[in-house]
């Protein structure tokens, strides 16, 4: 089974405006709200790609009810820990540019933390667990690390999509897959990566440090894939970007949707880039038919 974990889910409130001026009265053209948070996005895209999965994490209040209701409509299984606080609302402003305002989120008690860790004890060998998003400030900074340590010996395949210190300390636990973007890859090594050659050097370094598979996304410049056997480059198709929110999450879902069934990393990587771009070209997350239309446009080059 595939599990996603979202420590700090959100209701993503999307506001479209013809123009947006700070300090002025702005009127909306369109507003939409979606269940969000990185793991929840992965769950939603996986389901659209025909892959059953279970969403884990913390949820609370009326905003939490909205999320579970939407997941039920999409027939996505979940097993959240209920918290007393209210799940956050994140604002995504779309005019000529995209502006995001992500809230801090509710605090989570030690008892609630323990309940999530307990649920994770049910995971078994060859299950996949996606840990996606930043760790909220009310949780210990090493919360992901504690999860990985518990699940490593059970041979659960762990996918991590986070950044900064949380990502750095997980490298030694040798996750199955990580997906930094090229800025996050540079941050890991305290540098700024400007050329493809630099990105390749540091991507390969992560594999030599024990990470099985690494995808480095580079927005409209495409993506790179690294493992012990191969280094691949994929172009990103051209299109009209509607919202890049969830593009990275869709890449993870796209990769796993193929890998979990076929164990073919090259095909999984191609599908991953198609899913990322299909989401960038959609107002919210991609659909299966959008991904399948784009996948033929993604060329994979062995480097
Ligand atoms: N402008 C774009 N044109 C085409 N594809 C894009 C564009 N922006 C993003 N993508 C697709 O989405 C993938 C992920 O994008 P990006 O590198 O921005 O990831 P990210 O920083 O994790 O994204 P996010 O945090 O917005 O989810 C890219 O590899 C590409 O396939
Ligand atoms: O505040 P975090 O946890 O870093 O990011 C949360 C978030 O921006 O990430 C998702 C897109 O990847 C959105 O659905 C959500 O609002």
Automatic annotation (TrEMBL):
Pathway: Carbohydrate metabolism; D-tagatose 6-phosphate degradation; D-glyceraldehyde 3-phosphate and glycerone phosphate from D-tagatose 6-phosphate: step 1/2. InterPro entries: 1-PFruKinase, Carboh/pur_kinase_PfkB_CS, PfkB_dom, Ribokinase-like, Tagatose/fructose_Pkinase. It comes from the Bacteria. One of its GO terms (cellular component) is cytosol. Keywords: ATP-binding, Kinase, Lactose metabolism, Nucleotide-binding, Transferase. GO terms for molecular function: 1-phosphofructokinase activity; ATP binding; tagatose-6-phosphate kinase activity. CDD domains: FruK_PfkB_like. This is Tagatose-6-phosphate kinase. Belongs to the carbohydrate kinase pfkB family. GO terms for biological process: carbohydrate catabolic process; D-tagatose 6-phosphate catabolic process; lactose metabolic process; small molecule metabolic process. NCBIfam families: 1-PFK, pfkB. It holds the Pfam family PfkB. It catalyses: beta-D-fructose 1-phosphate + ATP = beta-D-fructose 1,6-bisphosphate + ADP + H(+); D-tagatofuranose 6-phosphate + ATP = D-tagatofuranose 1,6-bisphosphate + ADP + H(+). Residues 12-286 form the Carbohydrate kinase PfkB domain.
């Amino acid at each position: 089974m595939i599990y996603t974990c979202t420590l700090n889910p959100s209701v993503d409130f999307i506001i479209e405006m013809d123009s947006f001026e700070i300090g002025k009265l702005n009127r909306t053209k369109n507003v939409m709200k979606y269940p969000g948070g990185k793991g929840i996005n992965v769950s939603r895209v996986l389901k659209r790609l025909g892959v059953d999965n279970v969403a884990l994490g913390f949820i609370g209040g009326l905003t939490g009810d909205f999320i579970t209701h939407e997941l039920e409509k999409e027939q996505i299984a979940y097993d959240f820990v209920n918290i007393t606080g209210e799940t956050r609302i994140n604002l995504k402003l779309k005019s000529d540019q995209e502006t995001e305002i992500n809230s801090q989120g509710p605090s989570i008690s030690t008892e609630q933390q323990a309940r999530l860790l307990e649920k994770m004890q049910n995971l078994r060998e060859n299950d996949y667990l996606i840990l996606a998003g930043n760790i909220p400030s009310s949780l210990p900074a090493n919360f992901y690390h504690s999860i990985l340590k518990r699940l490593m010996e059970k041979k659960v395949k762990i996918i991590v999509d986070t950044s900064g210190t949380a990502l750095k300390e997980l490298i030694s636990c040798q996750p199955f897959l990580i997906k930094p973007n090229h800025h996050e890859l540079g941050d890991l090594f305290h540098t700024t990566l400007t050329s493809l050659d630099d990105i390749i050097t540091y991507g390969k370094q992560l594999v030599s440090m024990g990470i099985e598979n690494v995808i480095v996304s580079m927005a409209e410049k495409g993506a790179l894939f690294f493992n012990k056997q191969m280094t691949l480059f994929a172009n990103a198709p051209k299109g009209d970007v509607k919202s890049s929110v969830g593009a990275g999450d869709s890449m993870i879902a796209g990769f796993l949707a193929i890998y979990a069934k076929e164990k073919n990393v090259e095909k999984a990587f191609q599908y991953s880039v198609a899913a990322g771009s299909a989401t960038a070209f959609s107002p919210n997350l991609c659909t299966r038919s959008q991904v399948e239309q784009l996948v033929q446009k993604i060329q994979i080059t062995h480097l």
